[in-house]
Amino acid sequence: MTTRSRKTLTSLFAVCLLVAVPMGSLAEDDDEPAFMQYLFAPELILANARTVGLSKEQRHEIMKELKATQMATSDAQWSMFEAAEALNDLASEDVIDEDAMVEAARPVFEAESRIKTAHLVLLIRLRNALTPEQRAELAKIRDSDRD
Q1: How far apart are the C-alpha atoms of 137 and 49, rounded to whole Å?
Q2: Which residues of 84-115 are buried (b: 16+ CB within 10 A; e: fewer)?
Q3: Which end of the chain offers a freer environment for a tag, N or C, measured as fewer CB atoms within 10 Å?
């Protein structure tokens, strides 16, 4: 990895952290927003598919939604990467032009918003694909993993 690529990735990571900070104010704990207690990560669902009795149809639906989300977010991720390069260039100046930097960050924030929205939609659709019994079992599994 080149030095420029490493700096770009570091800049992108820093911008993502800035964007993620406000979400912390919604959290019950420091890790996630309170509403996440009602939603389930795809990894949790798939890792416990047999335990919760996921049907073939449910598995198919979940995989379809995962692929759709991946396709929907890939363009936004690329946009974020490109915008982070511009931010890196601006940030490397001796004196940073505040207005230019804020304007250059706008596409990063917009891409981040699109990605977060797509992930939220995914979590909603995955939850809606589960039965109440499956949701209860996954909640128990998730809660026992946290202890």
Answers
A1: 11
A2: bbbbbebeeeeeeeeeeeeebbebbeebbebb
A3: C
Tokens, residue 1: 């990895």
Q: Residue 128, class by beta-carbon neighbours within 10 Å (0-12 exposed, 13-18 middle, 19+ buried)?
A: exposed
Residue with structure tokens 């911008």?
15
Q: Which fold has domain 3-18+41-146?
A: Four Helix Bundle (Hemerythrin (Met), subunit A) (1.20.120)
Q: Domain-by-domain residue ranges, the chain?
A: 3-18+41-146
Dihedrals phi, psi of 51, to nearest 5 degrees:
-60, -40
Whether the CB-CB separation of 19 and 25 falls below 8 Å is answered with: no
Q: What is the pLDDT of residues 63-115, one digit of tens each?
A: 999 999 999 899 899 888 888 888 999 999 999 999 999 999 999 999 999 99
39 phi and psi, to 5 degrees?
Answer: -120, 160
Type of residue found at 1: M
The predicted model scores a pTM of: 0.72
